[in-house]
Amino acid sequence: MPTDFAAARQLLAAAGFPRGAGLPGIELQADNYIEQPRVAEVIQETWRRELGVRLQIAVLEAKTKIQNRRTGNYAISFSMWNAEFADPASFLEVFVTNGGNNVTRWSHPGYDRLIAEAAQTLDPARRFEVFQQAEALLLEEAPIAPVFFDAQTYLVHPAVRTGNPPPSATTASSASGWSRDAAILDPRHPKATEARSRRREPVENGESAARNARITKNSAAKETALRHVKTRTVFSSLLCVLCVLCG
Known about the structure:
The protein is of the alpha/beta class. The protein has nine helices and nine strands.
């Protein structure tokens, strides 16, 4: 989030509101998501102290806030977005003109052209350059103001054999041992061997082998499910404030 308060004060003065004098209060809509009201209070106090701007916080039910965004019934609103796949397009395509999720009503022909160009560019390096130009334009025009990236923490048993990380995962999250599809207890892991020993499973032969295999598989799945604890919300979801544009 931009913190150049000197420049902000100059812009306020140029608009006829020196130190916020004469500027009506602005409503910031937040839902009861655990972090949004707290972040809103920080922004409220910072703007009051640095700019003289009065920010009024409205804590709404999530469904009400979502409906307000859809209908444009807001001045500033919190919004979150989670990457559906590991690519800048998952974030940047949201803000194209008349995009289904572009609740800011922002429209810029140059931005639309850059996103379209990126979609048709095969060279990865050139494609990312185009995305960077689009991102710079988006931040310069400021229909959104990114605040922070959320995170997610997992507790994973050492015997869990990891699959591919989720699309939005970083190197740190990959190292945490996330399994996207299913948690699999690796029978070669020492912990798995110890678990079988504690259960005192009989020697597998004939029909008992198949029965014991089913028991072991079910027990391992239950044990893994209990140890694979999800402790926070959406990983790498972007929390930002949206400013509805009039005209």
